[in-house]
Structures are given as structure tokens and as C-alpha cells.
Write a structure and sequence with these properties.
Blueprint lengths: L5 E4 L2 E4 L12 H17 L6 H12 L10 H10 L1
Length: 83
């Protein structure tokens, strides 16, 4: 478990005593792009369009064959259905 922390006072960021003990998430950028694209497509598309079609369209637009650590399509589908 990573216990690293940062305290902010105004514009100053003060690191805590503990160091990070894990690597960063290499797929974070793609996850954010896919999630944002999925929400945008869902808001602009037909209400009766299947949620999984929206997710597939978004994933196809942003995911490359070598990408890993991708968002779970089932979670994106739930997000589309909740909009």
C-alpha cells in the first residue's frame, strides 16, 4: 500500500515523509480519453442506441493494438446507461 502524500498550502505543495512504492498507471491517458469520448458520444447519440455500441465506437477510436491496462467495457457501459 502506498502511503505517499502531498500537502497543499496555497500554491505550495509539500511532499510527505513516505515515498511512492508503486509505478504509475501506463494506461491512464487512454482510459481518460476513452471515458470522456464515451460520455460525449452517449450525450449526442440516439437514446435507443445500445450502450455497448457506443463503448465499442469509443474504444475503436482511441485504443491501439499494443495498448494495455484499458478500462473495462462493462464499466463504460454502465456509465453510458446512467446518463
Amino acid at each position: 500500500m502506498c502511503r505517499a502524500s502531498v500537502t497543499q498550502r496555497g500554491d505550495d505543495f509539500i511532499p510527505g515523509d513516505a515515498e511512492h512504492v508503486h509505478p504509475s498507471d501506463p494506461g491512464l491517458l487512454v482510459k481518460v480519453q476513452v471515458a470522456a469520448s464515451t460520455r460525449t458520444i452517449a450525450q449526442r447519440s440516439d437514446v435507443f442506441r445500445p450502450a455497448m455500441d457506443i463503448v465499442k465506437e469509443s474504444m475503436t477510436a482511441h485504443v491501439e493494438p499494443y495498448d494495455f491496462c484499458l478500462p473495462k467495457p462493462s464499466l463504460l457501459k454502465r456509465a453510458v446507461n446512467s446518463n
